[in-house]
Amino acid sequence: xxxxxxxxxxxxxxxxxxxxxxxxxxxxxxxxxxxxxxxxxxxxxxxxxxxxxxxxxxxxxxxxxxxxxxxxxxxxxxxxxxxxxxxxxxxxxxxxxxxxxxxxxxxxxxxxxxxxxxxxxxxxxxxxxxxxxxxxxxxxxxxxxxxxxxxxxxxxxxxxxxxxxxxxxxxxxxxxxxxxxxxxxxxxxxxxxxxxxxxxxxxxxxxxxxxxxxxxxxxxxxxxxxxxxxxxxxxxxxxxxxxxxxxxxxxxxxxxxxxxxxxxxxxxxxxxxxxxxxxxxxxxxxxxxxxxxxxxxxxxxxxxxxxxxxxxxxxxxxxxxxxxxxxxxxxxxxxxxxxxxxxxxxxxxxxxxxxxxxxxxxxxxxxxxxxxxxxxxxxxxxxxxxxxxxxxxxxxxxxxxxxxxxxxxxxxxxxxxxxxxxxxxxxxxxxxxxxxxxxxxxxxxxxxxxxxxxxxxxxxxxxxxxxxxxxxxxxxxxxxxxxxxxxxxxxxxxxxxxxxxxxxxxxxxxxxxxxxxxxxxxxxxxxxxxxxxxxxxxxxxxxxxxxxxxxxxxxxxx
Length: 558
Description:
This is Nitrate reductase catalytic subunit. This protein has 22 helices and 20 strands. By secondary structure, it is α/β, with parallel strands linked by helices. It has 3 domains: 60 residues, N-terminal domain of TfIIb; 257 residues, Rossmann fold; 193 residues, Dimethylsulfoxide Reductase, domain 2 (3-Layer(aba) Sandwich), CATH 3.40.228.10. The chain has a 7-stranded mixed beta sheet with strand order 5-4-17-16-15-6-7, with helices on one face. Strands 10-9-8-11-12 form a 5-stranded parallel beta sheet. It has a 3-stranded antiparallel beta sheet with strand order 1-2-3, with no helix packed on it.
C-alpha cells in the first residue's frame, strides 16, 4: 500500500492539507521532470478540516519546484562585484557571529535587522524572535507579511484589543450574506471561493456582494457587484452604515453592552447620506441601498477581504470600517458571521502568533506593553529591560536605514525583496549600499542573491518538520517527506546555531523542532491564541487543531 506523508500546501493562507508519496512508489518510478528530477505524487488530504481534500492547481503541482535551482552550499564574497566562493558551515557561522559582534560594539544592536517571511514555519519564526528581540535586544525583525497582512493585524488590534480573526471556514457554509471587498477570491483563494459558491447556489436566500472596481471572476458570481471608484471603500461602507442606522438595522443591545464610542461613529456616518456616498463611489443610489438592505436583512453576515484592502494606503482604516459594520449590527460572535481577513501566505498567522512583526512579541503581545515585555523576559530568563520598548524597523524602514547607514547588517530569509518590495529601483539601490547582506533561501540564483554577501542554503517546506497556522487558526503539522539537498539546513537550526556561537548556548539548546514548538506554546498560555494543549505529538495523533486549545485542566477547551 502506498504511504503518504501528510503536510500543508505552502502557497497561501487557506492551508490546504496535502498528502505526498515518494517517486519510488509510483507506478512508473522512472518518471522525471525536465531537469531529470523524480516526480512526487501530490493529492488533497480528505481528512484535513480546512480543505476537505480540495486543492488548487498550485498545490497540485507544488512538487515540481522541489529540486529546481536549489542552493546547496554556503557561499560568501567580500563585495558585490566579486564571484561567490563556497565555504563550510563552520566558516560561515564564524563570519556571521564575528560581524554581529563587531556591529554590536560599533553601532549597537539596533543596526542589526532581519527580514523574514510568511513562508517560515512557526518554529523558524520563534527562534528568530528569541535571537533578535531577546538575546540581541533589537526588535528589528519584520516579515513580508508587512506588505500584505499588517493592516488586518492593526485593524483587529485597534477594534478588538488583540489580533486574531474571529471566524472560520465553516462560516462559509452558514452565512446568509457574504460581503467580499478587495479580494478576487475566485482566483486567489479558489478553495474558499468554491466552498462559498456551493453554499450560495444551494441556498437561494443567500446573498453575495462583491466590491471591486474590476469585473473579476469573483464579481461574476455575485448577486450584487459594486464597481466602486478605486479608493472609495470607506465612503461605500460609511454610506451603508448611514442607511443601516437610518433604517434601524442596528443592534442597540450589542452596541451598549459590547462596544464603546458608538456616538462618535454615528456622528461620522451622519455625513455619508446615500446621495453623497453613491456619488463619491461612482455607483447608483439603488445599488448602495441594495447592499445595505442585503446586510441589514440578513441574520448572519460574513465579510471577506484580502490584499485589495490590506495593501491600500488606508488599509488599517478600511479594516476598522469593515469591523464597524459588524459591530453596529451585532454581526459577530455567532456562526456564519464576522469580519474574516483572508491571509495571503501559508503561515502569516503563525508568524503573528510567534511575534513575527516589528511591533509584536510571542503570544499576541506588543513590544510597547511593559507587562508583555516583562512576561517574555522572565520566560526567556533575560534581565529586566533587555527587550526594547520601541517597535523595530519595518520592512521599508530597513530599506531607508540602508540609505542613511543606520543598518549595518541585513539578514533576509525565505523572501525575495528585490522583486517584491515597493519602489523597486530605490530598493535595489539601497540593497547595493548594504555593508553586509546575509541571504538565506532554498533557491539560487534569485534577484536578491545579486545583492548578497553571504548565501545560506535553507531547507524547503518538504525537508523540515514544523507547524503552520492557516487563516482560520487551524494548526497543522507539516511533516518532512525528504532529506534537504546537500548541505541545506532548516531556518530555525541556522538561527539557533548563530545564537549558540554568540554565547547563548542554553537559550538555544534544542535538539529538534518539536522541542522548539513545545517551548513556544508555553508563551501562549492564558493568551487569546492559547495553544498550550498542542504539540507535534498531539498533531500527529489527532490531526490539525484549531486554537484556542489550552492544555487539559487549564481551560474549558481541554
